[in-house]
Design a protein that fits this description.
There is one protein chain. 56% of the residues lie in helices and 17% in strands. It is of the alpha+beta class. Among the domains are: 1-152 and 624-672, Rossmann fold; 219-267 and 434-481. The strands form four sheets. The chain has a six-stranded antiparallel sheet. A six-stranded mixed sheet has the order 8-15-16-3-17-18. It has a three-stranded antiparallel sheet with strand order 9-10-11. It is elongated and about 180 Å long.
Length: 672
């Protein structure tokens, strides 16, 4: 199967009609659409999904209603009476047929609001001969969706419509996916399952049950045996219904377990972050205290000594001025006129010499008295000068001390603010109210419930085995009492044949299922090694086809669940390539040819966005080999690493002006 073209009209980012014609060449089987981020690459991938399944791919936390399909520019030009339509047409071909799928929605505007209101929608499918596209036959409306899903099974859409940024774990594009069933569909094993189910496992409506109903017997004993058989078959169906409900509950619990485990895994560092957050709160509190202490020290130092620093120039100028006025100093330090008056009054000098009237001693004292305050300011000036000198000595380090304290305050504030910013960043990464203990309690609860359900399921399965054995004995007895007639003989032969076919199919299914699993598990590792430069890693499938990545350790390979986005994409690419390659080889084997076989095309949206340059090249070169057609939407800057130029049969570029909200698609000619 190959896509010939897709035509978008007013679809999301694309205003008016935009057409992409895909390369269907056998060798140059790659079509590339290049563009920068946010210009509309993913919109094209959404167009594929919408035209095939009537829904776009939703992001986590969003619903279909949150996505407006009508181009915003078209909507803005509409008034209350205007009508506009969105259409996407996809043309696909296989070896014989051509399929034209067209989905459309007509809108009005909820004026004056910029909201599009849907008032009419339609999907059409036209099938024609590949060589005569004009002679198409329209499929009845009620059968269109069924035919589309037969051509492009929805449960496989996550493989051939690959979103490199969202394909994650067993959650594919936000939808829980039974990978095992998808693998069975791709590898043809689902046909065995359908046949087995139809023959016997669907209960009262099965082929074998209906055949048995055609056989008649005679007498009350036969009737009683038939009633017992019917009762036990009814019991078996009830047990199977209960098992189905149990399996649904187990699956739901598994999803919840997986969700909690994934949450704990994704938030593995959050608990550490919370501990760091609490430690950082202590650091911030210490920094705040240190900052306050530094500020107090600065204020105290300023209060105690800053006046000396500020007074220093004034004191120096004042001493200089007074000296210039007072002349030569002849004062006795710390002496005043009152001191001389006291000596004269006592009549004796402090040295013991008598102070007599008109004596030389009295004359000397009176002369000295004239040089003491308040008659002379020499001594005061001396004291002033000594105080100034003392302040000068003490203020020599004040400037440096103030500067150091100010720097301490500044550093404390910066450290405090930086810690506050770190705390704010942490708060954005985590919810401080998250109760991890409660999460683990939930995990244990679901695991315990699954354990109980597993026991209940085992009990029911044991009851089914017991009922089946009783039915075998009853049917053997009924067989001996069947009316000997050609009619009964005919239906008995048919029952025996159906039973033998059922047993054969079931045995073949188990053999092929196990063989497929082993082959896929071997091939997936080979492809992983082909596509990725990772000697210390390997991948494998579990029995439920969950994809595990293993890391080399001293004790051998161990599973690692906390993968980077790039590792998840690497793992999933290896899986998808393996499935596609296996499916193609099996179909070729069935057709009796060496290679080939019809496969679904691979449409890749941003497949390499989180991979290294070397891995991009390794992966890209494998894709054209395993699929008949590869369609890639990717960044222009990443294209050079793919090495796919020799495989490209058609290339396009998405153009979007900076001042415009819509994009357009331009075909790139081969010489450009």
């Amino acid at each position: 199967m190959k896509f010939q073209s897709i035509t978008m009209n007013n679809f999301m980012r694309y205003k008016g009609q935009n057409v992409i014609e895909f390369s269907c060449d056998e060798k140059r089987n790659v079509t590339v659409v290049l563009g920068d981020n946010t210009v509309g690459k993913t919109t094209i991938a959404q167009a594929f999904r919408w035209v095939l399944y009537g829904a776009v791919l939703t992001e986590r936390g969003k619903q279909q209603e949150d996505y407006q399909l009508l181009n915003n520019d078209i909507l803005a030009m509409m008034d209350a009476n205007s009508k506009a339509d969105v259409t996407v047409e996809l043309v696909a071909v296989d070896d014989e047929k051509r399929y034209r799928i067209k989905r459309e929605i007509h809108y009005t505007r909820a004026y004056p609001q910029l909201i599009a209101k849907e008032f009419y929608k339609k999907v059409s499918l036209e099938i024609s001969e590949k060589d005569d596209p004009n002679a198409g036959i329209s499929v009845e409306t009620e059968k269109i969706e069924e035919v589309i899903r037969e051509l492009f099974p929805k449960n496989l859409s996550h493989y051939f419509l690959f979103d490199g940024e969202r394909w994650n774990d067993v959650t594919v594009n936000g939808v829980r996916e039974n990978i095992k069933e998808s693998v069975h569909t791709l590898t043809g094993l689902s046909a065995y399952q359908a046949a087995i189910w139809h023959l016997k496992d669907m209960g009262s409506h099965s082929v074998i049950k209906k055949f048995k109903g055609k056989i008649s017997g005679s007498g009350n004993m036969y009737d009683n045996l038939e009633k017992d058989r019917n009762r036990m078959e009814h019991e078996i169906e009830q047990c199977k219904d209960k098992i189905k409900n149990i399996e649904i509950n187990i699956q739901n619990n598994n999803e919840k377990i997986e969700e909690v485990q994934q949450y704990l895994l994704e938030n593995k560092n959050t608990e550490i972050l919370q501990a760091k957050y609490n430690q950082l709160l202590v650091v911030r509190r210490t920094q705040a205290e240190r900052g306050v202490a530094a500020y107090k020290s600065l204020v105290n130092l300023f209060s105690d000594k800053a006046y000396m620093l500020f007074a220093k120039p004034m004191i120096e100028a004042s001493v200089k001025m007074v000296k210039s006025v007072a002349g030569e100093r002849r004062d006795i330090p710390h002496m005043h006129q009152a001191s001389i008056d006291y000596i004269i009054k006592t009549g004796r000098c402090i040295c013991g010499t008598p102070i007599l009237p008109e004596s030389k001693e009295l004359e000397s004292l009176m002369e000295q008295r004239n040089f003491l305050p308040p008659a002379d300011i020499g001594s005061l000036l001396g004291e002033f000068e000594r105080t100034g000198q003392r302040w000068n000595r003490q203020s020599n380090s004040v400037y440096d001390d103030l500067r150091e304290d100010a720097q301490n305050v500044d550093q404390s504030i910066r450290a405090y603010e930086e810690t506050c910013n770190q705390l704010a960043g942490m708060e954005q990464q985590m919810d401080r109210q998250t109760d991890f203990a409660e999460k683990r309690k939930m995990l244990k609860y679901y695991q315990s419930e699954n354990s109980k359900l597993g026991v209940e399921k085992g009990t029911l399965q044991g009851q089914i085995i017991n009922f089946e054995r009783q039915i075998e004995r009853i049917e053997a007895e009924m067989k001996s009492q069947e009316v000997k007639s050609e009619e009964n003989k005919k239906w008995r032969e048919r029952v025996d044949l159906a039973e033998a076919l059922y047993t054969r199919l079931k045995n073949d299914f188990e053999v092929k299922k196990n063989k497929t699993f082993l082959e896929l598990n071997g091939q997936i590792q080979k492809n992983f090694e082909r596509m990725f430069n990772a000697k210390d890693k390997r991948i494998q499938l579990t029995e439920n086809y969950e994809i595990q990545m293993l890391y080399q350790t001293d004790l051998g390979f161990r599973e690692e669940k906390n993968l980077s986005e790039g590792e998840k994409i690497a793992r999933n690419f290896a899986f998808i390539v393996t499935i596609m390659e296996y499916s193609r080889n099996k179909k070729a084997e069935h057709l009796g040819v060496e290679s080939g076989g019809d496969t679904l095309p691979i449409v890749l949206d941003g497949p390499f966005s989180k991979l290294g340059d070397k891995n991009i090249s390794l992966i890209a070169k494998v894709l054209p080999e395993v699929s008949e057609q590869v369609i890639i939407f990717m960044l222009d800057k990443d294209w050079k690493y793919t090495g796919l130029d020799e495989y490209v049969g058609a290339s396009y570029y998405i153009e979007k002006a900076a001042d415009e909200a819509y994009a357009s698609i331009r075909k790139v000619e081969s010489d450009q």
